[in-house]
Amino acid sequence: MRSFALLVGVSSYPNFPDPKDRELPPAAEDIALLRTFIDDQKFDEIIVLQNSDATKDNLRYFLEVYLNKQLDLYKMRSRVLFAFSGHGAADDTSQAAAGKLVLGPASGANDFEHVYKLDELAPLLRTVGNKSYHFIALLGSCFSGGIFSAVGSGGDNIFYPRAPGAHAVSATRPDQLAYAFKNEAGSIFFTRLVKGVVTGNADRDYSNWAQDATGSLHLVGGGIVRLGALNAYVSGEIEKLGLMDGTPTPFPQLLSGRLRNDADFGGAFFFLGPDKRNTITVSERTSTGAPKLVSLSISTTAATPSLKNHPEIKIFRAPDTYSIQGVDVSHYNGSIDWKRVSKSRIAFAYMKATEGANFVDETFDRNWKESKQSGIVRGGYHVFNFCKSAKEQFENIKAVIPKDRDALPIAIDVQWVGAPKLVGQARCNDVKAIKDAVADLEKLISLEYGKKPLLHGFSQTFKDIIDDSFLSNSVWLQDYKKTGADGPSLQGKNAWSIWQFSSEAVVPGIKSKVGLNAFYGTKRQFSVFSASGKNVAAPRPVR
Q: What is the mean pLDDT of the segment spanning 504-523?
């Protein structure tokens, strides 16, 4: 795979009649920012056309001749980025009213020899996009949304990086001006875009993070930033700016759209996430209780959910990088075609079996049998009732979930969020009594089935209920990553074995959206966990 960037920036317009229009400092800052950014993105070739070099002839040469030759040579094994920062203008002479880019030698917006109409530029971009595996055009000028009046539209997925895709992103609608702040270098559009990538905040699901003992997150880096996530981040950052001074109008929002409609182009561009970091700095207490900063070595490549010798430091890599993934299902998911599920990347499934003392999931028996016939490693889960005894709940489990040495350990789902989450159980909130009941149920299941149960819950569940007294049990954490400052959290000394990171997964064979889970480790570690329920993720030996 080879990557090319064509950066076009015009900050000097010496031929404009009005002296105050001859300089556009934000464009100069944008190109300087983009040159450093694209270089850090490890692009193989970076072509910069700036000011007097930003001519129609030069653009045509690089778009029509040079890049086309290179793309023919690499045959759909190239990624191309095109970016423009400079003046834009409305184009009232075009039937599409697409707008135009004002180039360096121009004497004004109507100097047609030195402006590039967007409806003329769009076919060139589309041709490059047709020959690229991934293509993105970033247009940061006024009226740049006019690019979309010159291209068609179709079904799209701008979050999926594993298929070809060609898109454009504009800083404005066709009838809007683009903006910059006087006290801030560069345009609003490009500064927010680059910030989203280099901080890792634009696509937290595809970055690597460490959580310390206080619950604070530390960026470890790596991963990727998908176009869809970046668009959402930039849009959110612009929305936070509020209204433009002295007006009832918000700042212009970006637009995004496809440059081609082929059915096999179902993916989109991505950027490399922040550089991986070898250490993180956390606060610890000395023997006297005074705080001190400590630098800890870290690796995001080892199959571990916590730092060696520091079980309180949890590692959350990009979910997609975990090779062993599974679903969790119940009657809410309806009838499931397990043969189709088995042809996807799904390796295991947990299915609801029972709840409390008498509820039985009507789909469990069918799911249990058909998933095994289709080669899916499966296990049953029980939803804990805070108002029922361990003995009552165990009898329900024993009557429903068969003994099968090939099955995963039974999971106990403790839905506690600082109080019982389930309707009608709020009164049963004595923490000590709940912990004792969970421990009793865990022992009964272990004796009956010969495997230690997996304990499922939220961050609050493991903080209040399933604490250090359950270190020998594997942890199944339900915590969906968020786009703000919050992220996955699991305090305490136990690491996670399974992480339920999404409830919105689309899996072939399952009609409704479904929970998606990642196992932290290797196939060998998964086999040990499956056979015994042993907490193979434990950072130190446990009894």
A: 93
